[in-house]
Design goal:
Layout lengths: L4 H16 L4 E6 L5 H8 L4 E5 L4 H7 L4 E4 L7 H14 L8 E6 L14 E6 L4 E3 L2 H5 L7 H17 L8 E5 L2 H4 L3 E3 L18 H10 L5 E4 L5 E8 L14 H12 L3 E5 L6 E5 L2 E6 L7 E3 L51
Parallel strand pairs: 1-2, 1-4, 2-3, 7-9
Antiparallel strand pairs: 4-5, 6-14, 7-11, 8-10, 9-10, 11-12, 12-13
C-alpha cells in the first residue's frame, strides 16, 4: 500500500526542514498504521521518532526494528496534550535533548484514524520554550489546602520511586496527602502500619532516611497517608472508596481509580505512581490535574503547546508563514509542487488544531 500523496509531501517537507533548521529529529505523531518501509526509505538518514497513541500500533512499530518508538499515555486526548506528552516522554527518556528543536508531523485538523489522509500538519518546536522543571507555581495552580512545599516533597519522592523502582523492578505507589481526618475512616489496614510508634520527627518526609524507607515500603501493597505537614501517618492501607461519579480513560488500574476516588470524596491530594511507565499523576477533586515525568535530576512538566492556524499549500517553493506563534519556521524548500487533485494540500490543510 503506497503512502497517500499528502503524507508523502509532508515527509519530504519534514526532511528538508530538519536539515535547514538543524533539528535533532523528526517526530511523527500517529494513531494510524502506515507503510513503514516507505516512510523509512523516504526519510533517508534523517532521525525519525514515532509516537504512537494506539495500543495495538506500538508493538507493530517495534517489529520494524529500525524505528524509535514512544508510547503515549492513554489519557492524552487533544492534539496539544498528545504532542506535549510525546515530546516530554522523548526528552525524559533521553531520546531528545532538553535544549533541542524538532520537526513534528501530526494530524492537527481531523483526528480520525479512518481519514483518507492520516497526517495533515507540520511544525517546528523548540523544546526549551516548553520543557520546564516543576516549580512551586505549578503546584499552587492545583488550588489545594495542602501546603505547596509538602506537595513538592511528596511529588519529588513519587517521581524517584517511578524512576528508580526497587531491586531492579518497576514499582508503583499511591500517596494521599492532606485532609487526614476524613481520609483515615476510609482506610483499612492490609498489613502492619510501618509508622506506628515512631515520634513525629522520625516520620517526617523532611528526613532523608524516612523518604528512603518509604521507597522500600513501596514494594508492599497499599497506600501511604501523609498529613498536611508532611508526616507519614499510615502505610500499607486499602482505600475503601467507591468510584461513583469518577471518570477515567480506559486502561487505568485500581491504583489510579482509588486515587481519583479518594480525591473526589475528600479534600486530599492523591499522587499516583504508575508501575508500568513510572509517570506520576496528581488528582484533585476526582480529576487528574497534573502529569509529571521523571528525569535523572528533577520532575519535569510540559507547558501547553499552542498550535497555530494552518495555511494552504503554497504556489512557490517557499514554506508559507504561519498566522502567528513560535512553532513554525519559514524555510526555502526545493520541493516539487503536486499537480494532481489527490496530491492537493500536501504541505498542510486549512484549519485550527
Amino acid at each position: 500500500m503506497a503512502l497517500p500523496p499528502q503524507t508523502l509531501g509532508l515527509l519530504q517537507a519534514a526532511r528538508c526542514l530538519n536539515t535547514h533548521v538543524m533539528a535533532d529529529a523528526v517526530v511523527l505523531l500517529t494513531e494510524t498504521q502506515l507503510e513503514w518501509s516507505e516512510v523509512i526509505a523516504e526519510m533517508g538518514d534523517t532521525r525519525l521518532i514515532v509516537a504512537a497513541d494506539h495500543a495495538k500500533l506500538a508493538p507493530r512499530l517495534r517489529e520494524e526494528g529500525t524505528l524509535t518508538v514512544i508510547n503515549l499515555p492513554i489519557d492524552s486526548r487533544s492534539i496539544q496534550e498528545r504532542l506535549g506528552q510525546a515530546l516530554l516522554e522523548a526528552t525524559c527518556s533521553g531520546k531528545l535533548k532538553e535544549m533541542g528543536r524538532v520537526v513534528v508531523i501530526y494530524n492537527g485538523v481531523l483526528n480520525d484514524p479512518n481519514a483518507p489522509e492520516p497526517l495533515d500538519s507540520l511544525s517546528v518546536i523548540h523544546l526549551n520554550d516548553h520543557l520546564e522543571k516543576m516549580k512551586l507555581s505549578d503546584l499552587r495552580r492545583l488550588k489545594s489546602t495542602v501546603p505547596v512545599e509538602t506537595l513538592r516533597r511528596v511529588i519529588d519522592l513519587a517521581a524517584q520511586i517511578g524512576r528508580e523502582g526497587r531491586e531492579g523492578q518497576p514499582v508503583g505507589a499511591l500517596f494521599v496527602v492532606g485532609d487526614t481526618e476524613n481520609v483515615l475512616p476510609l482506610c483499612r489496614p492490609i498489613n502492619f502500619n510501618p509508622f506506628r510508634g515512631y515520634k513525629t520527627l522520625d516520620r517526617s518526609l523532611v528526613q532523608v532516611k524516612v523518604r528512603e524507607q518509604i521507597k522500600e515500603l513501596a514494594k508492599l501493597d497499599g497506600a501511604f497517608i501523609i498529613t498536611n505537614k508532611g508526616i507519614a501517618k499510615e502505610g500499607c492501607v486499602y482505600l475503601d472508596v467507591p468510584s461513583k461519579d469518577v471518570e477515567l480513560p480506559a486502561g487505568f488500574g485500581s491504583r489510579h481509580w482509588a486515587a481519583a476516588s479518594v480525591s473526589k470524596m475528600t479534600k486530599a491530594v492523591a499522587i499516583c505512581v504508575s508501575q508500568s511507565s513510572g509517570s506520576v499523576r496528581v488528582f484533585v477533586g476526582g480529576k487528574q490535574q497534573m502529569y509529571v515525568a521523571a528525569t535523572p535530576s528533577r520532575p519535569h512538566l510540559w507547558s501547553n503547546v499552542r498550535l497555530d492556524t494552518h495555511v494552504s499549500r503554497p504556489t512557490t517553493g517557499l514554506m508559507p508563514q504561519p498566522v502567528s506563534g513560535p512553532f513554525h519556521t519559514p524555510v526555502k524548500l526545493n520541493l516539487p509542487i503536486p499537480h494532481s487533485a489527490d496530491a492537493k494540500d500536501s504541505v498542510s490543510k486549512n484549519g485550527d488544531a
